[in-house]
Design brief:
6 helices; extended; about 25% strand; Glucose Permease (Domain IIA)
Length: about 280
């Protein structure tokens, strides 16, 4: 009887001791997020894709690293993301590049970046749009029927969806709107599988690949020194870097989800595409 009683108290002590153990690791306070201030270049990276990843202006990124947009970057190279420019870097910003060099094959080294092309100046209708920040209009729930398209690839343009040079990239319904506080840097347009995606305005292809996480197969178009647009979640890319495209030119085909993620960046920062598409 005494042995059973002693065993009972021994077991009770063990159980009480367990309740006083430190909290599980998962319940401990998570340390503050550390700001990323450098980037290690990967095969396939360009200055444009790196700038897009971190919401930076590509010219400022190049200048902060003491280079121009014509410079060559290499896999494993470390680039600073600190935009506090030195005086020499500021001088670099004042001298945009003049020509365009195509990037070499993704598997080759080094990774080549783009030099700005003097022929990449957009049409007057687009450049005129840059003179003042457009006022925010009432947002539509559906992208206008800018093209008559189906899964067989009909490509007849019917009517411009906007005024001022910007047009809807695909026919469909807006299912997610721009909302920076919720980290929605663009809009999502629901279309159909295999739908043709068109450039919203004239410009130069500065990125075409799948090296940016969460974007899938992505196309980035440069429309001016401060305006870029992006077309993500494609199944097939129909353009290459350095190529000049016109407004409403087919640049890609959507994947099985039939959903296009579309963004516009102004001076490196995301802006609401509706402001431009409904101008």
């Amino acid at each position: 009887m005494l042995i059973r009683l002693a065993f009972f108290w021994f077991l009770t002590g063990i159980l009480l001791g367990c309740t006083q153990q430190p909290a599980a690791v998962s319940s401990l306070e998570v340390p503050a997020h550390k700001k990323i201030d450098t980037h290690q270049v990967l095969t396939g990276d360009t200055l444009y894709s790196i700038a897009w990843r971190y919401d930076l202006n590509v010219r400022r990124l190049a200048a902060a690293n003491g280079m121009t947009q014509s410079a060559t970057i290499y896999p494993a190279q470390i680039l600073t993301l600190d935009m506090r420019l030195s005086e020499s870097s500021k001088a670099t910003l004042k001298s945009p590049s003049k020509t365009v060099l195509p990037r070499k094959d993704m598997s080759s080294t080094p990774v080549s970046t783009r030099i700005e092309s003097s022929s990449s100046t957009p049409k007057k209708s687009v450049s005129a749009l840059l003179k003042s920040e457009p006022k925010r209009p009432k947002l539509p729930l559906t992208a206008p029927a800018t093209i008559l398209s189906n899964q067989r690839g009909a490509q007849k343009v019917v009517k411009s969806a906007s005024v001022g040079g910007w047009q809807w990239p695909v026919r469909g319904r807006v299912i997610e709107r721009f909302n920076l506080p919720k980290l929605r840097k663009g809009i999502k347009i629901k279309s159909v599988s295999g739908a043709a995606v068109r450039s919203s305005a004239p410009g130069e292809i500065v990125y075409a690949g799948n090296g940016l996480r969460d974007y899938g197969k992505l196309v980035i178009i440069k429309h001016s020194e401060i305006l870029l647009s992006a077309y993500a979640h494609n199944d097939q890319l129909l353009v290459s870097e350095g190529q000049r495209v016109e407004g409403m030119q087919i640049i890609s085909k959507l994947g099985s989800s039939g959903t296009l993620h579309f963004e516009i960046r102004k001076d490196g920062s995301p802006v609401d595409p509706h402001v431009y598409l409904t101008k």
